[in-house]
Amino acid sequence: MHNVGLIRDLAMVMLTAGTTTVLLHWLRLPVLPGYILAGMLIGPHTPGVLVTNARTISDISNLGVVLLMFTLGLEFSLRKLRQMRKGVLVVVVIEVAFMLWVGYMLGISFGWGTRNGLFLGAIMSLSSTMVATRTLSESGMKKWPFARVVVGMLVAEDMLTILILTLLTALAIGGVVETSTAFSLIGNLGLFVVVGLLAGLLLLPRLVDHVAGFGNGEMLLVSVLGICFGASLLAARLGFSVALGAFLAGVVVAEARHVGRVLKMMEPLRDMFAALFFVAIGLKIDPVMLVHYALPAFLIAVVVILGKTLACSLGCFFVGYDPRTSLRVGLSMAQIGEFSFVIASLGLSLGTVSRFVYPLTVACALICMVSSPYLIRATGPLMRVGRKLLPQPLRLLLGSYSTWLENVNPVMESTTLAPVFRRLFLHIVVNVMLVVALFSLGLYVNARGWGWFAQFGIHREMRHTLIWTTALLLSLPFLVAIYRKAEALGMLLVELGIRERFAGSYTHAIRQVLARLIPLAALVLLALLVGALVSTILPPRPLIFSVGVGVLALALVLWRSLIKLHARLQAALRDTLERQGDDLHD
């Protein structure tokens, strides 16, 4: 009877998915949100329920996750990752980190607690590969130049998803992730991924090509599915998610020469299990709870759309894409989807998040999915509105920035000037590492010396303030050096990149603005990096502001002295290294 019940429930799911596909295609509406709504209609929370078995719902969902992640991995290619601009990878990291922070702060402001806030941030940070690619395909833009940038960003997000899933799993099981635990988890994850990829790339593509050589499609399909489920089982046995194992299996199989045949055979399975996956999501949803959280879901969806559009568009523009391409990329990334559902399911299954987080995720995703096609089509009108709203000097500055990048790129490859750029950049990196080392030393003192502070009656907040202030004061010579080297780099780039024939009478003003923005941007990025590293020893916000203002004033007063001090330290280091080199030579 259980088997008959399973077949009946599966039949209801597939019949509903098939009917939904035909109906929504006829109405020219997106299919994926229709699957979720169809699952809600036949689920256990709706009158006249058609699917009731919780085990069936869970099995269908897990099967859908495994095969969906495997097919996404097949479309991922290590060659694609190598061909991407390095700037795009930086944009994705910053965008995901920004949305993580925005989601966390949003959850805290709603009063949902730190865990719900952290999971909400992870849910909001990841765009939907399936929604984005389907939207591009259905709108006829899949072969446009900006679509390649979108695919590259989605590929980079997929890799970050592995890290996020692992850390969230550790948080859900252990309750808290300390800095040392986080690095340990990242190390274990890195070891698993690297060993899995190396071993897989040495064996599995050859195996797949060998099986494909028999010319038997059934044999090839069964073998590939065996690899998929075997990798999922291995990942689960090692303490990772089945989604991670399936995705890595897809990535490895994608390097086979006959991956085209595999993809062609997997397409029907991908579409079928995508339907299963999204219908299974709807099966878990209580419509009453969905309505109850409609307003916060709408607010979160608006934040997702605006935040991702802004972060991706600005990021792409600053790494060298024109404004129209950057805006199209940002609008294409402005949604959440399958990975967000996986994260919400993870938190719910492990009892880490509140029950409302899952329907909230679904409602937010539905709004984003329905909006996605219209957002991409709105690129032209938004560009026209932007031109009208932006003042002339700002438009000229943005245009000059694009021209500057076009002029600087060939200069950066020059054999004469490239060493100068490399030397300035190396100096900045070394000084950044010294600042990070000083604050890391502060972390060590805080972890090991709290008992010593207690002997003098120094409480926790005062201890953090003393350590943070001391590290900041000791970092002053290096911070000044970072600013000066970045300023020199900025002035050189501006002189080379901003030409008078493009900027006209605004040339000098634009050069001055950009020359100041580059060192300030370097300090802001350093502040974000250090703030993330030493978040556990940050003093209270009023004290941060007061100490920051005081240290800034001290830096301005002692500017020349700090420059001389850094020069002496640099000279001493150079002398030491040269002396060691001479000793070795003797």
What does this molecule look like?
The protein is an all-alpha fold. Helices cover 84% and strands 0% of the residues. The longest helix has 38 residues. The chain is globular, with a radius of gyration of 27 Å. The chain starts with a helix and ends with a helix. The C terminus is likely disordered.
Low-confidence parts: 579-586
Report the major sheet: none
Question: Roughly how many Å is the radius of gyration?
Answer: 27 Å
The number of E-state strands comes to 0
Q: Which structural class do the helices and strands define?
A: mainly alpha
Q: What fraction, in percent, of the residue positions are helical? A: over 70%
Tags for this model:
586 residues; mainly alpha; disordered C terminus
How are the SSEs ordered, and which strands pair?
Elements: H1 2-27, H2 31-42, H3 54-75, H4 78-83, H5 86-109, H6 114-125, H7 129-138, H8 145-174, H9 179-212, H10 217-237, H11 242-253, H12 259-283, H13 287-292, H14 294-318, H15 323-332, H16 338-349, H17 357-377, H18 379-389, H19 392-412, H20 418-448, H21 450-455, H22 460-497, H23 500-503, H24 507-533, H25 541-557, H26 559-585
Helix pairs in contact: 1-2, 2-12, 3-11, 3-12, 5-6, 5-8, 5-14, 6-16, 7-8, 7-17, 8-9, 8-15, 8-16, 9-10, 9-11, 10-11, 14-15, 14-17, 16-17, 19-22, 20-22, 20-24, 22-24, 22-25, 22-26
